């Protein structure tokens, strides 16, 4: 049997990719679009070759995206039609009614909406183009980049941080005053309330 981790050398349509989450941070998508536009055509081609989209191959040979949803959405909005994918799992043999249960067990799906509420698997978007905006996911991404927490291998770790931050401030604040929201997020990230979260790097002991 072929190594399932070998990247597909043929391009796959971005719109044929199935998301495994319900939301993205559109602010983050916008930043990725900006960086893409700043690259020359050759650099863009090199980037597409290096940033292959990790997928699980499911029933009917569908490709389910398990990471890089933001990149895929940004490329789609920039008019890119096809990307290369890297299969990290092969579930073609799993029956359809068992598929999402297996994906959930392996932590390859995150069926939570923009309010942080768990939804039925059937509510997952069918296309990258249908992903909704969760401003708290953008806030969590920016918090990580600013050193508020460390990058971690825990699946969907930035969504866990997004849900934590969701309980600390209003969506209105994040949408209307991102800088102020970042200040609050950085303070919250250092607190012991956040100690259970992946990548927490707050104070080692009580002051």
3D structure, described in words:
The protein is of the alpha/beta class and 207 residues long. The chain contains eight helices and seven strands, in the order ββααββαββαβαααα. It folds into two domains: 12-133, Conserved hypothetical protein from pyrococcus furiosus pfu- 392566-001, ParB domain (Alpha-Beta Complex); 135-194, Helicase, Ruva Protein, domain 3 (Orthogonal Bundle). Strands 4-3-6 form a three-stranded mixed sheet, with no helix packed on it. It has a two-stranded antiparallel sheet with strand order 1-5. Helix 1 (26-38) crosses helix 3 (69-77), helix 5 packs across helix 6 (157-166) and helix 5 (135-145) crosses helix 8 (178-190). The radius of gyration is 18 Å and the shape is globular.
């Amino acid at each position: 049997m072929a190594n399932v981790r070998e990247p597909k050398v043929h391009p796959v349509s971005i719109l044929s990719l199935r998301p495994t989450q319900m939301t993205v941070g559109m602010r983050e998508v916008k930043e990725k679009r900006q960086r893409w536009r700043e690259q020359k055509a050759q650099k863009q081609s090199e980037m597409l070759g290096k940033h292959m989209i990790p997928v699980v191959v499911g029933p009917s040979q569908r490709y389910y995206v398990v990471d890089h949803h933001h990149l895929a959405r940004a490329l789609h909005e920039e008019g890119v039609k096809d990307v290369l994918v890297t299969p990290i799992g092969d579930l073609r043999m799993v029956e359809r009614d068992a598929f999402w249960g297996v994906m959930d067990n392996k932590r390859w799906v995150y069926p939570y909406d923009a309010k942080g509420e768990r939804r039925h698997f059937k509510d997952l978007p069918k296309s990258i183009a249908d992903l909704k905006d969760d401003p708290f996911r953008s806030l969590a991404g920016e918090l990580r980049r600013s050193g508020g927490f460390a990058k971690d291998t825990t699946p969907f770790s930035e969504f866990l941080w997004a849900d934590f931050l969701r309980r600390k401030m209003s969506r209105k604040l994040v949408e209307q005053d991102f800088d102020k929201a970042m200040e609050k997020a950085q303070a919250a990230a250092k607190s012991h309330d956040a100690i259970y979260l992946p990548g927490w790097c707050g104070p080692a002991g009580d002051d």
